[in-house]
């Protein structure tokens, strides 16, 4: 394929490939409760895409008016990770396999771009979605200085794919992720797999919004055909 016509899909993990956000929010709430902080569970959906360090710092500043000590952050995030792992294996998101296969069949590069560093999920990707991502085609919280909503993760994903950002599709389920994708210059799709209202994604400028992954997977062949026709 002509390198000028190559395209890439930059795909989030939690809430896109795995129905895992309900477990993340439960783990966050339980961990914060152990530290004496009563944070509503649904609030953590709004922080999805941020690194764990950024999430803890944000909450700490809001509650105490100062940043959290780095050692404290490490202990808190370690505890959150323990709780998340104790909650057991996370389900694959219905429709995600069809989405990935459609991108693969169309010859698009695929890059995993996640604000998570949760090894219990990252280690499952290859067995749950074999061949979905090439070697090294991952951007995690460990690979960036600034997590979402900074455009850095998606710019790095586009760079790994060797594709200009404007020729990439971002697939997200969080408002901060949508903001990051738009700031990177990518066509950005939001899939509302959590309790966040559609209006939050509209506010962030999502180019397309789908009710679930199955709906997006159904629409994807036509979307790819339309985008590729524009390149001819």
List the SSEs and their pairings.
Blueprint (H helix, E strand, L loop, with lengths): L7 E4 L9 H14 L17 H13 L5 H17 L9 H10 L3 E5 L5 H4 L2 H4 L9 E2 L12 H10 L6 E5 L2 H9 L3 E5 L6 H6 L4 E3 L2 H18 L2
Parallel strand pairs: 1-2, 1-4, 2-3, 4-5, 5-6
Provide a descriptive summary of the structure in words.
By secondary structure, the chain is of the alpha/beta class. The chain folds into two domains: 3-19 and 91-230, HAD superfamily/HAD-like (Rossmann fold), CATH 3.40.50.1000; 21-86, Putative phosphatase, domain 2 (DNA polymerase, domain 1), CATH 1.10.150.240. The chain is 45% helix and 10% strand. It contains ten helices and six strands. It has helices at 21-34, 52-64, 70-86, 96-105, 119-122, 125-128, 152-161, 175-183, 198-203, 213-230, and strands spanning 8-11, 109-113, 138-139, 168-172, 187-191, 208-210. A six-stranded parallel sheet has the order 3-2-1-4-5-6. Strand 5, helix 9 and strand 6 (208-210) form a beta-alpha-beta unit. Helix 1 (21-34) packs across helix 3 (70-86), helix 2 (52-64) crosses helix 3 and helix 4 packs parallel to helix 10. The longest helix has 18 residues, at 213-230. The protein is globular and about 60 Å long. The two termini are 12 Å apart.
Number of helices: 10
CATH uppermost class of the largest domain: Alpha Beta
First and last CA, distance: 12 Å
- Overall tally of domains: 2
* Mean of residue pLDDT values: 93
**Major pleated sheet:** 6 strands, parallel
Low-pLDDT segments: none
- Strands, count: 6
The rough form would be described as globular
Q: CATH fold name of the largest domain, please? A: Rossmann fold
Order of helices and strands: EHHHHEHHEHEHEHEH
What fraction of the residues are assigned to beta strands by DSSP?
A: 5-15%
Order of adjacent strands in the largest pleated sheet: 3-2-1-4-5-6
């Amino acid at each position: 394929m002509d390198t000028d016509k190559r395209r890439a899909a930059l795909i989030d993990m939690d809430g896109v490939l795995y129905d895992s956000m309900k477990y993340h929010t439960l783990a966050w709430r339980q961990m914060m409760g152990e530290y004496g902080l009563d944070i509503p569970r649904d609030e953590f959906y709004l922080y999805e895409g941020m690194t764990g360090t950024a999430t803890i710092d944000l909450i700490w500043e809001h509650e105490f008016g100062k940043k959290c000590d780095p050692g404290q952050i490490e202990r808190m995030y370690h505890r959150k990770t323990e709780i998340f792992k104790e909650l057991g294996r996370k389900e694959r998101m219905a429709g995600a396999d069809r989405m990935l296969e459609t991108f693969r069949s169309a010859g698009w590069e695929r890059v995993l771009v996640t604000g998570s560093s949760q090894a219990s999920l990252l280690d499952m990707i290859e067995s749950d979605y074999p061949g979905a991502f090439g070697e090294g085609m991952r951007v995690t919280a460990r690979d960036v200085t600034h997590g979402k909503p900074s455009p850095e993760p998606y710019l790095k994903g586009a760079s790994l794919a060797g594709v200009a950002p404007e020729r990439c599709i971002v697939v997200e389920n969080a408002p901060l992720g949508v903001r990051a994708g738009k700031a990177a210059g990518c066509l950005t799709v939001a899939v509302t797999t959590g309790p966040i209202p559609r209006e939050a994604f509209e506010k962030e400028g999502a180019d397309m919004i789908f009710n679930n992954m199955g709906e997006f997977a159904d629409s994807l062949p036509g979307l790819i055909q339309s985008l590729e026709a524009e390149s001819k």
